[in-house]
Amino acid sequence: MLPLGGVQAHKGYVLTFMIEALADILSGMEWEEDTSRPWPIIDGCFMALFNTDAFRPLGDFKRDLRSFIGHIKSSSPAEGSPGVFYPGERSQLTKVQRSREGVDIPDSAWSAVTGYANEYGLTDLIPEPVAT
Q1: pTM tops 0.85, yes or no
Q2: Is the predicted pLDDT of residue 118 greater than 60, yes or no?
Q3: Which of 9, 77, 117, 132 could form an SS bridge with 81, CB 3.0 to 4.6 Å?
Q4: Reduced to 3 DSSP states, what percent helix, strand and coil does the chain have, rounded to the nearest 5?
């Protein structure tokens, strides 16, 4: 959260606080990790929908958003970072890459999949893995 709030990160803190309050408290989900479980289950959801035209014309909003994204993308990335990304961009890039190149599956996971396929008579549905 430091990029939003500098060293003190106050803006990042406020954004995180509001997200937790809306997604967890408002939805009635857990907001505190229960360390007695083998893994934390903290799953809340909050979705906000906005009628952009209630604020300004949609075309103007899209134009200015593209400009804002361009400004963000033109920022210097942190040292060692591959670049500056807007929310969702890395996921989209990964999706495109995986669609083009496939997904690496560990041998142990592939063995489990093929084992279940054998057990349920579905071996004809499992493609051969592509060696890399």
Answers
A1: no
A2: yes
A3: 77
A4: 50, 0, 50
Considering only residues 29 and 38, tell me which one the structure prediction assigns the higher pLDDT.
Answer: 29
Contacts of 23 (CB under 8 A, 6+ apart): 29, 44, 45, 46
**Rounded-to-integer distance, Cα 12 and Cα 4, Å:** 6
Rounded Cα–Cα distance for residues 7 and 4 (Å): 9
**C-alpha distances in Å from residue 38, one per residue of 24, 30, 41, 55:** 20, 16, 9, 46
* 44: its two tokens: 């809340």
